[in-house]
C-alpha cells in the first residue's frame, strides 16, 4: 500500500513539473508582442534567437556597434551580420530564398527595384554617404594629391588604384559614374578613357544627353587597375601597400583611419542639389542572366524586413534601433550622416510609423 502511495505522489509531482515547464518553456524565441522597446529575458539554458542581418559592406563598422547595443537590450538574441555587396545581399533573398530578418543596402533604390512588392512592401532610408578617394601616407604622390589634380595622379605610370565590382557593389558602379562626371566638371573629355577604358573592359557611350557606361565585363588589367567584389576588401590592400588609392565611401575611410580626398559635390554623389547632373550617367551591369541599369543619384542607404524573415518582429526592432537615437549617434560617429528623421516608404510597420517621415 505504501508503495502505491509513493507512486501516486511521484506521478503528481511530475505532472506539476511538466505543467510549470509548459508555461515557461518558449525557449526565449517569442518576441515582445506589443512593447517596442522592452528587453526580453532569456529562459535559463534556452537557445538564443538568431537575428540575421544582410548588410552592405560599408555598413559593417556602425552595424557592429548597433549589434552590441541590440544584444544588450534584448539578451535572448544573437545578431548575425552578413556583409556583402548590396546587390549580393538582395540576391540572397530574391534569388536564393535566404530568410534575412533585415536587409540594409548602400543604394536604397535597389529595394524597390528588386524586392518590392514580392519580398517586401516597405522600406526606410536612414543615412547618406559620399564618394572619396582613400589612401595612406605611403601612397605614391600622396603629398601632391588635391581635388583639382587627383585624376592626373591616378594616371601616372607607377600608381596602382582600385574600385569594387560594378556588378556586385554600389560603390563599384558609382566609381565610374564619378569619373565620368569629372570630365564635365574639369573640362577634360579624356579622363574616363585614360583611367578606366585604357585599363579595363569598361566602356562609355553617349546616348542623347546621357552617358551609358557598360560595366558588364570589367576585366581590369590587374596591374594599374584592380577590381575586387567589395569595396571593403580594398581597405586591406591599401593598408598592406598593394595599391596606392581606392575609391571608398567616406564612412569606410573614417572607420578604418584612412586618409581620404573629398571631391567636389558636383561629382561626389553626395548632394541633392546636383541630382539632375548625377542622373546624366548610367551604368549597365549584370543581373541574373541579363543586365540592369543603375542611374546616378545621391548616395542614400535603405533598410527593410523581408517577408520571408524568420524573426520579422526582431527585424523590426533592429530597424527601430537603427533609425532611433542610438543608431543615429553611432552612424554620425562613424562618418555616415544619418537622415533624421528617417524617411518611410510603403506600408510601414506600426512600430516604426511614429519614427519616420512618410514619402511617396
Which runs of at least 5 residues are low in confidence (pLDDT < 50)?
A: 1-36, 38-45
**Fraction in helix:** 25-40%
Summed up, the helix count is: 13
CATH superfamily of the largest domain: Periplasmic binding protein-like II
Choose one word for the global shape.
globular
Give the ordered list of helices and strands: HEHEHEHEEHEHHEEEHEHEHEEEHHEHE
CATH-level-2 architecture of the largest domain: 3-Layer(aba) Sandwich
CATH fold-level label of the largest domain: D-Maltodextrin-Binding Protein, domain 2
What distinguishing features does this structure have?
2 domains; D-Maltodextrin-Binding Protein, domain 2; globular; 360 residues; alpha/beta; five-stranded mixed sheet
Folded structure, characterized:
Helix 2 (60-73) runs antiparallel to helix 12 (325-333). The protein is an alpha/beta fold and 360 residues long. It is globular. The chain is built from 13 helices and 16 strands. A hairpin with a 2-residue loop joins strand 7 (203-207) and strand 8. A seven-stranded mixed sheet has the order 2-1-3-14-4-15-16. A five-stranded mixed sheet has the order 9-6-10-5-11, sandwiched between helices. It has a four-stranded mixed sheet with strand order 7-8-12-13, with helices on one face. The protein folds into two domains: 49-128 and 299-359, D-Maltodextrin-Binding Protein, domain 2 (3-Layer(aba) Sandwich); 131-295, Periplasmic binding protein-like II (D-Maltodextrin-Binding Protein, domain 2, 3-Layer(aba) Sandwich), CATH 3.40.190.10.
Amino acid at each position: 500500500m505504501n508503495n502505491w502511495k509513493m507512486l501516486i505522489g511521484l506521478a503528481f509531482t511530475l505532472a506539476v513539473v511538466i505543467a510549470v515547464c509548459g508555461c515557461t518553456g518558449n525557449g526565449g524565441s517569442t518576441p515582445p508582442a506589443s512593447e517596442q522597446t522592452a528587453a526580453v529575458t532569456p529562459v535559463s539554458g534556452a537557445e538564443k534567437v538568431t537575428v540575421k542581418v544582410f548588410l552592405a559592406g560599408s555598413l559593417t563598422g556602425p552595424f557592429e556597434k548597433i549589434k552590441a547595443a541590440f544584444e544588450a537590450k534584448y539578451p535572448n538574441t544573437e545578431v548575425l551580420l552578413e556583409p556583402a555587396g548590396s546587390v549580393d545581399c538582395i540576391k540572397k533573398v530574391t534569388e536564393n530564398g535566404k530568410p534575412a530578418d533585415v536587409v540594409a543596402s548602400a543604394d536604397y533604390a535597389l529595394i524597390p527595384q528588386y524586392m518590392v512588392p514580392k519580398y517586401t512592401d516597405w522600406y526606410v532610408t536612414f543615412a547618406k554617404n559620399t564618394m572619396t578617394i582613400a589612401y595612406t601616407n605611403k601612397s605614391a604622390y600622396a603629398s601632391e594629391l588635391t581635388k583639382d589634380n587627383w585624376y592626373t595622379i591616378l594616371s601616372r605610370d607607377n600608381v596602382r588604384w582600385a574600385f569594387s565590382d560594378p556588378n556586385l557593389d554600389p560603390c563599384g558602379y558609382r566609381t565610374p559614374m564619378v569619373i565620368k562626371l569629372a570630365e564635365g566638371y574639369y573640362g577634360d573629355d579624356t579622363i574616363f578613357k585614360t583611367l578606366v577604358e585604357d585599363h579595363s573592359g569598361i566602356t562609355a557611350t553617349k546616348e542623347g544627353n546621357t552617358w551609358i557606361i557598360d560595366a558588364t565585363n570589367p576585366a581590369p588589367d590587374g596591374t594599374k587597375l584592380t577590381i575586387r567584389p567589395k569595396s571593403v576588401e580594398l581597405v586591406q590592400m591599401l593598408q598592406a601597400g598593394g595599391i596606392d588609392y581606392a575609391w571608398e565611401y567616406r564612412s569606410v575611410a573614417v572607420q578604418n583611419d584612412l586618409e581620404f580626398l573629398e571631391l567636389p559635390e558636383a561629382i561626389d554623389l553626395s548632394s541633392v542639389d546636383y541630382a539632375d547632373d548625377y542622373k546624366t550617367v548610367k551604368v549597365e551591369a549584370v543581373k541574373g542572366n541579363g543586365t540592369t541599369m543603375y542611374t546616378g543619384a545621391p548616395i542614400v542607404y535603405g533598410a527593410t524586413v523581408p517577408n520571408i524573415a524568420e524573426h520579422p518582429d526582431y527585424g523590426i526592432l533592429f530597424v527601430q534601433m537603427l533609425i532611433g537615437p542610438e543608431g543615429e549617434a553611432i552612424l554620425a560617429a562613424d562618418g555616415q550622416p544619418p537622415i533624421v528623421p528617417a524617411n518611410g516608404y510603403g506600408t510601414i510597420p506600426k512600430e516604426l510609423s511614429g519614427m519616420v517621415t512618410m514619402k511617396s
